[in-house]
Sequence to fold (297 residues):
Amino acid sequence: MSTTTTPGTPGTTPGAETGRLPEPTPVPERPHGVVRALTDGWIVAKRNLVKIKRVPEVLIFVLISPIMFVLLFAFVFGGAIDPEGAVGYREFLIGGIFAQTVVFGATFTGAGLAEDMQKGIIDRFRSLPMSHAAVLVGRTTSDVVYNVLSLIIMALTGLLVGWRIREGAFDALLGFALLLLFAYAISWVMAYVGLLVPSVEVINNASFIVIMPLTFVSNAFVPLSSFDGVLRQFVLWNPVSALTQASRELFGNVDPSTPVPDAWSMQHPALYTLGWVVLILAVFVPLSTRQFARASS
Fold:
């Protein structure tokens, strides 16, 4: 007695009644080039941001540091720099604190990459079908979020100690955007250094040696009139000085009676800072990508 099997019943191979196998389901083609790097990089960035939930202590210390700097310079050193403790110095100070904090915040990129290399996580990424630049894009992007949170906390703290935004909201947003853009460029420098050094301890010490002179030998905490000779020329052309000056101008924290320096970098600080951003990215994005491919192989 024969039985007839109808299509769709259990145990029946689709297409058996026609003698042909079903067509395979097409797999969506993955993007290539820059689009793929950005897509995969965003996935890596979300992986890095998940650490905030798992290790909230990291975020707490990131946010406490700028508060300490604001209070320290406003109330401890401010009295020596400005004997009357006027609000004027506190408005002058916040732009420098902003610049210092975002530059220091960029070091998380190098430390994070050095840690991933040390723990072998980079080897796991190598086994995945992802862009080589995705790890770097994801790391630098996630660190922008840390800097955004730091700027918010610093701005609120600055408002409490007497800092005010004297220009419009649009100029203030441009000031914050310029700070974040410069920090993003510095994070690629730190990414390259993080791929060169063998441990997190080394990247912390190396970044400290480089960043400390750039931030403290600048107009971040004292006016340009405090410097003379060769040191003054270094301060005038220091990109951190230009970033600080641009932030003060965009926030409206520049004293109109202060003479404008004759250096082009201080006369056009925003443009000079953007020039440094373009130069740093043009040099260190390909260098970091090449070093990552070499280190992970």
